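Researcher: I need the complex structure. Ligand is 1-deoxymannojirimycin. Inputs:
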Amino acid sequence: HFRAVYEHAYPADELMPLTCRGRVRGQEPSRGDVDDALGKFSLTLIDSLDTLVVLNKTKEFEDAVRKVLRDVNLDNDVVVSVFETNIRVLGGLLGGHSLAIMLKEKGEYMQWYNDELLQMAKQLGYKLLPAFNTTSGLPYPRINLKFGIRKPEARTGTETDTCTACAGTLILEFAALSRFTGATIFEEYARKALDFLWEKRQRSSNLVGVTINIHTGDWVRKDSGVGAGIDSYYEYLLKAYVLLGDDSFLERFNTHYDAIMRYISQPPLLLDVHIHKPMLNARTWMDALLAFFPGLQVLKGDIRPAIETHEMLYQVIKKHNFLPEAFTTDFRVHWAQHPLRPEFAESTYFLYKATGDPYYLEVGKTLIENLNKYARVPCGFAAMKDVRTGSHEDRMDSFFLAEMFKYLYLLFADKEDIIFDIEDYIFTTEAHLLPLWLSTTNQSISKKNTTSEYTELDDSNFDWTCPNTQILFPNDPLYAQSIREPLKNVVDKSCPRGIIRVEESFRSGAKPPLRARDFMATNPEHLEILKKMGVSLIHLKDGRVQLVQHAIQAASSIDAEDGLRFMQEMIELSSQQQKEQQLPPRAVQIVSHPFFGRVVLTAGPAQFGLDLSKHKETRGFVASSKPYNGCSELTNPEAVMGKIALIQRGQCMFAEKARNIQNAGAIGGIVIDDNEGSSSDTAPLFQMAGDGKDTDDIKIPMLFLFSKEGSIILDAIREYEEVEVLLSDKLSISFTSLVTKMSYRKLFLVHW
Ligand code: DMJ
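Model: Output:
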């Protein structure tokens, strides 16, 4: 296949394997951004240089290097992607150089070599530097190889946004270039871009978005995952630590990793979330690029989730022969293309290294068989246009030879098959090899002392130790299998088998084991049932809860169907309630000394009990109920008798609290939110719903206060003991001062 590239495509950037010719930019219909990798610099040749050495094709490597030195021009009037040029071309030249000097030192091949590839790399490095001329230090996404950025001939430089991976995947190549040559500027620029991204991380979640404005540093796309647009930013933080030995990179990686595992990882899935609301999923599908992540987790030493995600991906592959560019959380094809991406093979290789489990060799065998069966064409391997139909695209990206071949070969290679020690090198994101000895060479870039900034990190041994692949699980060869076993049918289990049967079972009138109207978020038994049905509960900051169902997380297919019925009921219940009357906000006014009515707190109404809009107001002194949550018979009825009882939100339904205080003789009730810091200034007010049963027995008025407003009353009690309030229909009050802003936003319904 290397030969096919030379014969049919060279000196073009890529081989077109169906028509057996080279892809020359400008001569073929434009494919948009994909073409930005093509700089008329014999991309595939450069990208596959070090693969030749790995495959022990030393003679061919020597010829290929000569070709590069003789033919490749880096000064073309072409606009290229800075990211792609860095990882494929700069990385390719540096990987080639790394192995060329290794071979030269061995004394047989490359004896004539005099750092010529490195000189080319340096020339290319200088060509990329103008891209960094922004106030943020983040590079422009594209550059003209001949004219740079600013000049009119450049035809680029007006972009405002770049992807996080585009700006954060430079440090390995740029630092290697600096350390090989002594020209520190490259490493400095790459570090500056990384520092800026780190500063811009969303501080409450420690996640980064997909795209960022290179001038203002604002996040343009605030969704966050580990796949497209972000992937190699995380990869390079960890690998920069390995290559450069700089602790700050590991500290950053660990901080992000912690956030990824908290919010994005839902084993075996990896689901995008919003950086500001990380409990909210941003989409219901995953992209193929995230398949690299298990490999990175192996490097981090977190093997279990790596095995789980890899197993899930493998089952998707078994179902569709290849990993579709995007697939849904129930493993249907979302985007059917597959450009022969290497990420899954990469993770398979690293998992095999970590576990020694022959299962991963079987996985590799399946990958090779599928490639030969479905993608092999007379002039090479063709990308899949649609994995469902097996149709081809006239495309073979350079990463297929740079990465896929390398990883698959390495998976099956014995130590003796490789003419050098692969453990002495680190793989870049394009699988180019950089020698680890660079960590102690030309270390002139000052390391930032960041320890004080990171004191919150758990710097346990685990976080600071790289796994040693020689000694992982020597006594437990079944370790990986035991993790895979429960996931064996994860894809089949979630297959559309459901659709007809579920509809049928709905028609049959089957009921879920827990009825939506009975559900209480604080009841541990209910939560257990939810979990079994694959329904997860997300507590939103404003106190509401969100329910999400993932059929694959259910204990069985029957439970998954129950979960669907439960969700269906819940949707019906809330839409029914939405249709019910929208009550306006109410008010709690403190009328006793020294407030005298000047403090008015915005309160949420209840759909049960005395309607304040019809019955004017209720006035009384306040008293806290015991238990404070009001979920059982009060133990202090004498204290609340004839008073307005204060009750804390939570543990049971609002209606139950109302009944308990009413039975104790209270004339009204104020429920105070248990979410610390909540306020009607920031959270949407809601109305307290009943419990789905008849609530006519509740005669007293009930109002709801968020915690900030509630604590005004609690503080007043602490200071003045006797505090009298007026519960009223807010609109009827003429007040002189408002403590909290009036809120006439649409009210939500909440039950507990
Ligand atoms: C490769 O060019 C690199 O691995 C990059 O980081 C993203 N993925 C492509 C191949 O899929």
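Model: Summary of the prediction. The longest helix spans residues 82-106.
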